[in-house]
Amino acid sequence: MEPLYFRIYGDYQGPGPVFYGRDECPWLAEIERHWRTIRAEFEDFHYHRGQGLTESYIPDDVEVRGWRSINFVTYLHWYGANCARFPKTVAILRDIPHLTSAFVNLLEPHAKLPPHNGDTNTTYRCHLGLIVPSEGPECGLLVGGERRGWREGEAFAFNEAYRHTVWNDTDRDRVVLVFDVMKPEYRPRKRRICGAVLGAITVTMLETRFPPLRRLPAVLRRTLHRALAVAATAVLVLRGERVVGPGAVG
Questions:
Q1: Which domain does 18 fall in, by range?
Q2: pLDDT bucket at 52, cuts 50 / 70 / 90
Q3: In terms of Cα–Cα distance, which of 179, 162, 201, 166 is closest to 60?
Q4: pTM of the full predicted structure?
């Protein structure tokens, strides 16, 4: 089994493929069957009713504009208010075994996300194209040195731990459903791993708000991460798989 990787440990070195085969991810075909339902629910929420999205959380200390989302679940922490607004989408997501995170992500025209490592190597990061302004080079994803574009109604899975970047050089929004599924070898420790990811995100958030924390010795940084991971895991265990709310959008 590959050792656990978290973003706070630096660049991910592999091993493993960048993109995963569809035979390894049978839920991709199932989610594709429902793409029009998911897209229609999003369009009704955002474009027809004018409900806003929130700026996507970026744990790194960089400025990114035009990258917005609505979150349904983040490493087993569910957002009750958001789920209530997307009942059809959430029902579809809940049928995916070992789902850990899910959100709809919008990248505005001429926006891009700078190169970064993902949170962990323990999940399959999946994208389902909902609104794709171009299948050409002006809109795409570069991960681990491999480029991939989106197509409406099609899904793929990749290892988000590799350094990657996303761009939309068109004049229209690009919208995808993003979700994570725990890999088989890590599923017996699903809650502990999700708690560790939440702990790592919290460490980065604290370092962004309080830069002197970045000067902590590595041993103290890992100790802080372990303490926060234990606390987050305890909360997940107490909540189980329940949707909690009301929760804020995003």
A1: 7-185
A2: confident
A3: 201
A4: 0.92
Q: Is residue 150 part of a domain?
A: yes
Amino acid in the structure at residue 87: P
Helix crossing, 218-239 with 190-209: angle to 10°? 130
Q: Is residue 215 part of a domain?
A: no
**How far, in Å, CA of 100 to CA of 77, rounded?**
8
Confidence of residue 138 (pLDDT cuts 50, 70, 90): very high
Could you report the per-residue pLDDT of 99-128, keeping only the tens digit for each? 999 999 999 999 998 888 899 999 999 999
Q: What is the CA radius of gyration of the chain?
A: 17
∠ CA 242-244-249, rounded to 5°: 135
Q: At 77, phi and psi to the nearest 5?
A: -95, 110
Q: Residue 101 pairs with which residues in a beta bridge?
A: 180
- Residue appearing with tokens 């895991």: 233
Which pLDDT value is given to residue 248? 36
